[in-house]
Amino acid sequence: MANLWNVIILRPMLNGLVALSGLLPESVEFGLAIIIFTVIVRVIMTPVVIRQTKSTRAMQELQPKMKELQKKYAKNKQKLQQETMKLYKEAGVNPVGCMWPLLIQFPVWIALYQSIMKALAATPENLLDLAQHLYHSDLIAQAMPVNSNFLWLDLGQPDGTMILAILVGGSMWVQQKMTTAPSPDPKQQQTNQMMLMMMPMMFGLFTLMFPSGLPLFWLVSNLIGIATQYWVAGGWGYLKRGGAAATTPAKAR
Amino acid sequence: MKGLRVLILAMLAVAIVVGGGCTSRSAPQGFTGLVSSGDTLYACSTDGRIVAVKPDLRANGVAFPGSGEWEYAVTTETRGAFGCGSSQVAATIYGSPVPQNGHVCVGTYSGKVLMLDGESRSASLAFPQVRAGEWQYPRTEDTIGPIVGAPAIDGNRVFVCSSTREDGQTVGVVYALDLTYGDELWVSPALNGKLWVTPAVAEGVVYVTTFDGHIYTLSADTGDLGPWSYKAEAGFVSSPLVHNGTVFAGSFDRSLYAIRRGASAPQWSYRGDNWFWATPAVAGDVLYAPNMDGRLYALNIDTGDPVWAEPFDAGSAIAASPVIAGSNVVVTTKDGDVFVVDIATGDGVRVPNPESDKATTLNSRVISGMALHKGLVYVLPQNDIVSAIDPVANRVEFEFSLRME
């Protein structure tokens, strides 16, 4: 299974990344390759992401009606289930519709993570392991070893400054804030607020621990996510609207 | 929605574990070879100990440490994930220890060079015993950049390569230290690219190969760059081997290059199917060069022409330098197999595992080189269990662990 994963997904991505870095100016080759590769992957995944975003928004828009149903059928769970399914059907929403795009994206993200980390070969053991994954190509041979210096970063080492951590955490917060609808339920709202803070903080901390090639990928991915969200929702979404959006959700484009 | 969030969180956790933990830079473990000097074998274990053992005592199962045996745990200070708190952990060592007149020199990944005196270590005295010729460089708590490779000793000097960051770029630096006191004699100019190599020293010249494809020469006396350097199109992956004025080094372009000092073009090059990671062994006019493609190539040292009809195929990647043992060359694979190959014909046999014919010879990966001692070849795999192999009888004679209680 691991071998199949390597042959079909990991190696093509890893070699693509290394080959791309071989085509770029040497001083910024791998950092720029990560950015370009992330953009390419995000562009390829755009239809799936848009579908996921629309699906999530549609689910959010149904929340007030869902609350009404929950109140109305609080004592009849079977009826509540039937009415909920009916509501989904009428609105043309698949309750698990926003999960499938996520599931499809995940192997791609994991492979991209792995490719970046393998290509950077931060330790001698990593470099030795990398030898088993590279294709026989002059372009790839010329690109090796990849230049891990990019701007102020050594992509193979964690960023000693807080700059990248702040950028990753900040961009993740913006992206989440754009999509997190304020809830009329105080309990749910509290959970939402906690999530909104927790994830960016977690990834900010990860940034201080992981080789900075990976947080660079997170940052670029977040920025593209924000752009995609802006385009799909036709604006900054809940980032600007705040509490008002709870009662008047934005229409998906 | 709550369920969806839980799912997303779970997926993120999986991504971190799979994408980060399993596949990213795992903590450096280290790998070093064995070195034979006199009646002693010197090695570094993967838990950061330098060990001196007498093979005769180990063969007889004498309790460690026997007479003249010792071990010394090298530790390094590490800081918590966010720079808070510090603790002492086992040092990581890449590169064999270098014995010299009862002393042993090692470089650590944390950027220290240590010279140990065998007698002081046998007596378990505090380190360093300056009067006995022990030292560490730098002497203070400071460190230089990571050292990946062994030090080289020539005359009364120790040469060691290190990599560090300077003005946002990774550069290589060569240090020359006094053999007796560890004083810094000179520090080379910053060289482009990482220096994960053991320097080679010949006729007053220090040779290093860099990840950006340079071969640099430096004066052993002053550290000044020599008039000759060579720039290849691809980076060099192996340490240089210098033999009769010719530098041999493996490149990331899967070729082994032979470049005469002073020349502007290679004398010859030979391409394998993967990297020539390990430094070749020389016997007579033949170079025995292992490759990560799993083959051992025998090449004429002057022309690069293959000597054998076919290279010896070991079946899996070879990362350790081979050792010449009489009429055989012994080679180990990364997976843990050991082969004895006839140097004349290139025919080889696998040394069987003492416990199971189906298993690899050794029960762990082998990344670093071997040592020949009194006709037996000693191999140190990553599980720190040394195997003594008789290349004539083609069997494992005995084993002992470096992790002795």
Sequence-ordered SSE layout with sheet pairings:
The complex is a heterodimer of chains A (253) and B (405).
Chain A (H helix, E strand, L loop, with lengths): L1 H22 L5 H33 L1 H10 L4 H15 L7 H22 L3 H7 L7 H6 L5 E2 L2 E2 L8 H17 L6 H24 L3 H21 L4 H4 L12
Chain B lengths: L1 H21 L12 E3 L2 E5 L4 E5 L1 H5 L10 E4 L1 E5 L6 E5 L7 E3 L2 E5 L5 E5 H5 L12 E3 L14 E3 L2 E10 L2 E10 L5 E4 L3 E2 L7 E3 L2 E5 L4 E6 L5 E7 L9 E3 L2 E5 L4 E6 L7 E4 L9 E3 L2 E5 L4 E6 L11 E2 L9 E3 L2 E5 L5 E5 L5 E3 L20 E3 L2 E4 L5 E6 L4 E7 L4
Antiparallel strand pairs in B: 1-2, 2-3, 3-4, 5-6, 7-8, 8-9, 9-10, 11-12, 12-13, 13-14, 13-15, 16-17, 17-18, 18-19, 20-21, 21-22, 22-23, 24-25, 25-26, 26-27, 28-29, 29-30, 30-31, 32-33, 33-34, 34-35
What does this structure look like?
The complex is a heterodimer of chains A (253) and B (405). With 253 residues, chain A is mainly alpha-helical. Chain A has one domain. Helices cover 72% and strands 2% of the residues of chain A. Chain A contains eleven helices and two strands. Chain A has helices spanning 2-23, 29-61, 63-72, 77-91, 99-120, 124-130, 138-143, 163-179, 186-209, 213-233, 238-241; strands at residues 149-150, 153-154. In chain A, a hairpin with a 2-residue loop joins strand 1 and strand 2. With 405 residues, chain B is mostly beta strands. Helices cover 8% and strands 40% of the residues of chain B. Chain B has helices spanning 2-22, 55-59, 118-122, and strands at residues 35-37, 40-44, 49-53, 70-73, 75-79, 86-90, 98-100, 103-107, 113-117, 135-137, 152-154, 157-166, 169-178, 184-187, 191-192, 200-202, 205-209, 214-219, 225-231, 241-243, 246-250, 255-260, 268-271, 281-283, 286-290, 295-300, 312-313, 323-325, 328-332, 338-342, 348-350, 371-373, 376-379, 385-390, 395-401. In chain B, the strands form nine sheets. In chain B, strands 11, 12, 13, 14 and 15 form a five-stranded antiparallel β-sheet that branches. A four-stranded antiparallel β-sheet of chain B has the order 1-2-3-4. In chain B, strands 7-8-9-10 form a four-stranded antiparallel β-sheet. The radius of gyration of chain B is 22 Å and the shape is globular. The chains are: A mainly alpha (253), B mainly beta (405). Chains A and B meet through helix 5, helix 6, helix 7 and helix 9 of A and helix 1 of B.
